[in-house]
Design brief:
Length: 372
């Protein structure tokens, strides 16, 4: 009986062993297939690695594209801003150098090639004024040229000129308006750069090149905005405009123009913030005593400075692009008073109507402005 049980026990163990081996072989086959088969771990691993590699390549290509776009934007920004450099909060155009003064006292730049000088008029938040036309007036001032309210829509305003400034064509009973639409290019530039440049001096030309000139218009190549030159006069307003625009016509960084009423008035507002009384009693005028050795027709740039801007009151009347209208009558406006006028009579704020602009006079000059 014991032998039978022993044999049966041994049989069960052998069968179990065989079954175990078979199961292990099956598991091994499954494991091998899962590892190296078509859908095995190695295959899946290789596919995963390739997917990762492809994804990484795609991401790198995408990042390279973004990097290029960012580089292009940076280059574009850099190229735009190489047109000027910021010095003490003021944009200095390429080709010009800051020589003296501050934004508050009159920031002066000089062209590196021709030596012309201009002064920055800041028009920014906190300045107390905007780029606009103004009807200056003060209590007790008997000059009525500037008395009147500016229409907020048309930017025109009515005034009644003193008797000695009325022409025979003006009917006293008709309304008289001084008008000029704001030039769009000036507005855009001032809004973007928070200011503009005005000629430090009236426009002149080198003395040695005029010799005995009387009626001859100076050649354009000698146009200068510098101290100690004879004022470029005896030209019509259209000639003055053309000369002003041609001065920096080939310059890619600034645009030159004759002074508009907006540029003139805003410059006076800039001066008024530091010197409130000057614009009504401008020092200047009566420069004939400085001309004892020269023709009485001559006027020289650079006699009196305020905020580093010279002779806006006196020395010579200056053409602007402003007009006076009364009915069918149109007259051009000159500003600032001449060499034989007293500053109290015709200070820098003065607007004076003078014909249709085709006349030429040695009393009439002009001033150039620059816009970035």
């Amino acid at each position: 009986m014991k032998n039978v049980l022993a044999k049966r026990s041994q049989g069960i163990t052998l069968i179990a062993l065989i079954i175990t081996v078979i199961v292990m072989l099956i598991l091994a086959a499954v494991a091998i297939n899962m590892t190296i088969g078509d859908n095995g771990i190695f295959k899946k691993s290789d596919e995963g690695a390739q997917i990762y590699k492809n994804s990484a390549n795609n991401e790198a290509a995408s990042l390279n594209g973004i990097d290029k776009e960012m580089g292009d934007l940076i280059d574009q920004y850099h190229n735009e801003n190489t047109n000027y450099t910021m010095v003490d909060g003021v944009p200095v155009p390429k080709g010009f150098t800051h020589t003296e003064g501050t934004k508050e006292t009159g920031f002066v730049i000089k062209n590196d090639t021709d030596g012309n000088e201009f002064v920055w008029v800041p028009v920014e938040e906190g300045s107390g004024y905007t780029y606009d036309r103004y009807a200056f007036a003060r209590e007790g001032w008997d000059l009525s040229l500037e008395k009147g309210e500016i229409d907020p829509e048309t930017k025109s305003y009515k005034f009644v000129p003193p008797t000695n400034t009325q022409t025979s064509d003006m009917a006293p009973e008709e309304e008289i308006y001084v008008v000029e639409a704001m030039p769009s290019d000036e507005k855009a530039s001032v809004e973007k750069y928070k200011g503009y440049y005005i000629g430090r001096y009236e426009t002149g030309y080198e003395l040695e090149e005029i010799q005995t000139r009387l009626a001859e218009v100076p050649t354009r190549k000698v146009l200068k905005v510098q101290k100690g030159l004879e004022i470029l006069s005896n030209i019509t307003i259209e000639e003055a405009k053309e000369l002003a625009e041609e001065l920096y016509q080939s310059n890619n960084y600034v645009k030159s123009k004759i002074c508009s009423s907006y540029a003139w008035d805003t410059a006076l507002k800039f001066i008024e913030t530091k010197n409130p009384d000057w614009i009504y009693n401008s020092e200047g005028g009566n420069y004939t005593e400085n001309l004892s050795e020269r023709s009485v027709l001559a006027r020289i740039t650079g006699y009196h400075s305020i905020n580093n801007i010279y002779d806006m009151g006196g020395n010579a009347w200056e053409w602007t692009s402003e007009e006076l209208r009364q009915g069918d009558i149109t007259a051009k406006i000159i500003r600032g008073g001449g060499r034989v006028n007293t500053a109290n009579e015709y200070p820098a704020v003065t607007r004076f109507p003078t014909g249709d602009g085709i006349e030429k006079s040695y009393e009439l000059g002009f001033r150039i402005t620059l816009f970035l």
